[in-house]
User: What shape does this take?
Amino acid sequence: MDTHLKKNYNFSFGIIILCSVVFLLSFILYNQEILRLNLYLGLNPTLFIKYKHYWTPITYMFAHSNLGHLFFNMFALFMFGHSIEEKMGSLEFIAYYIITGLLAGLFSLIFYYIFGINVLLIGASGSIYAVLFAYAVFFPARKIYFFGIIPISPPILILLYTAYDLISQIFGATNIAHITHLSAFVFAFFYFKLVYKVNPIFIFRHYRRFN
Assistant: This one.
């Protein structure tokens, strides 16, 4: 796997700024009773099909429902995005971020449409999960301090997130878009298989070798 350093324009920080601006604008417009911007940015089966909101598989990943939603997504991007951008290079990083988020959004849209779930999907978590997946592939032997205390290897964290989202999706434990998270992992997996010609599962199984 080619992991040499490439040109870095710090796009990850730019995404944080963009999402923050969009959230602030949405908050102002909503509180002034001018416009509910998230209805035009969010991904929804009815709005996509009936009202032809064809841009929303891209825009949904830059909108957030509340400050906590924005903070946790952007904090994860702040923690892991720069390292991935340095490895991939900024142009490939932004392509990876958009492609995985787009595919995860489209998969979720199809899933919700088939099962008659009329939700408004917003948030960067699909792309963020793909970034976490990439971090586990590039830096499998590093330690992430879960809750700032518990040291855990990135591949183990991916496994835990997958189990949590899978169980939550099956049993409907939360209103979080777990199917988007899971599909982001799947598309990130195939991205590494096709672009980098590596098997992430092999890396995850033997992560201790990659010190």
In short: The longest strand covers residues 144-146.
